[in-house]
Amino acid sequence: LPTPPSPYNATVLILGGGVSGVIAARTLHRLSPSTSFLIVEARHELGGRLQSTRFPSPSGEGEGYAVELGANWVHGTQTLGFEQVNPVWEMVKQWDVQTRVSDYYGSMTTYDHTGEAAYLPLLNDSLAAYAALVASAPLPGLQEPGSASARDGYDSLGYTPRTPHEQVAEYYTFDWEYADGPERTSWWASGVSTNATYEPTAGGFSRSNHFSIDPRGFSHFLKSEAGSFLDPTQVLLNSTVTAQGEETGVEVTLANGEVLRAEYAVCTFSLGVLQGGAVEWDAGLMPPRKKEAVEAMSMGVFTKIFLQFSQKFWFDTEFALYADPQERGRYAVWQSLDHPEFWPGSGVLFVTVTGDFARRVDAMPEEEVKAEVLDVLGKMYPNVTIPEPMAFHIPHWLSDPLFRGSYSNWPANFTREEHGILRAKTGGRGGKGRVRFAGEHTSERWFGFLHGAYYEGMSAAEEMVECIEGGSGCEEVRDFDLSDD
Ligand SMILES: Cc1cc2nc3c(=O)[nH]c(=O)nc-3n(C[C@H](O)[C@H](O)[C@H](O)COP(=O)(O)OP(=O)(O)OC[C@H]3O[C@@H](n4cnc5c(N)ncnc54)[C@H](O)[C@@H]3O)c2cc1C
Fold first, then answer.
1. Binding positions for FAD (predicted)?
2. Looking at ligand 1, which residue's alpha carbon is closest to its atom 5?
């Protein structure tokens, strides 16, 4: 193994062992085998926002089900005749992760507070409006975003959902993707991320969404990838970073008081962690303009609430929508895994909440959330006595100090310049940037997605290698003037 130059623990510290961190490590390993690195991760395992918990099978037989608390889908795979392939999809195939295509629009049952209610055509209207919204946003990288919100975009297209049925249809096509409403999302950026993921003619991958049903958990692909090149001495688990500073290099203080030193670092902590203040920064590493940019991007909340019943009593489609008469997005999107394509006989059902409603749920006692969820099921099924679930689980991404939310979203008035500042290297005298920020949130095209985290981990490490090997990567490390205005 490459030996780090003394007095450093490694040449590069990779802070965080999610998709970005693991791919940054793999890129260093491939491009510069003589460069030493160390992944520093607070949790007991690699994977980051790829996490699952186990539900038993109702019969008590078999190994049960790996219920995905975080990322669950590969969004966009590859389209025949187009070169662009989602790199996460390539790893998923390479490591044989079991997935199924999710039929977002073709397998849906619709409900409201009176029970089943027929409003599927509204879903087609919302899909058509969304397609027009993203088609009229400029292509990735070509234009500066204005400050128009996706709501402005919908208004300009004459799409104005008013009734609870119309609103839940819009919620499903928009909020359920962005974890935030159209008012709080940039029209331009929602077009960029959609086109760059789903539209092959705009450099995207494909329109399909593959959902992991793998009993080893979706993280299997990343853990296997990591296992294929990492030596155990290159990973420090159970190690929480509390401060980052710079003296002769980067100094990282851990919760146990230990200090790690390196020439460079790639920091992949989530946007929520950067906003949350759990890590102390030297002013040179987090100058005021960077801090402002970090504050200005938003961290969305997307919470799946899982239930397991001993017997299925619900819809036979993959999805269902519930239109609440009072509140848009209240326990709106339901998904059945007890379905022939997924986990038949599993009794597993989940409902997803987003945005402010998810923030409220994150802070509530779980018993109260459960009572509300069962009450909604009672409205969807007025003739069924809703049984007590055998299992109930809510992940708390927002209150978890290692994440502080689910994934980032680009707000309407957030500029490309601010995003560049959020992403830019900082630290180091003489213009030699020591710390590069990477993660899904630093991706202009694919913020929020696993593939965004992948590409950012890769480009951060590529830049580091250029820097270390004395190439151009180090010359103008600050694309932006980060000094206080
Ligand atoms: C509920 C949910 C659903 C999602 N669904 C999808 C989906 O279906 N498809 C999709 O493409 N994307 C989805 N995403 C987004 C996707 O999970 C992320 O884009 C991606 O996993 C981010 O990877 P990352 O490496 O940037 O960050 P992370 O995975 O957050 O990695 C950062 C790592 O840093 C560690 N860390 C944080 N603070 C410290 C500290 N102080 N010290 C040491 N270590 C620390 C964390 O433990 C973590 O392991 C979802 C996310 C969530 C939460």
1. 20, 41-42, 241
2. 71
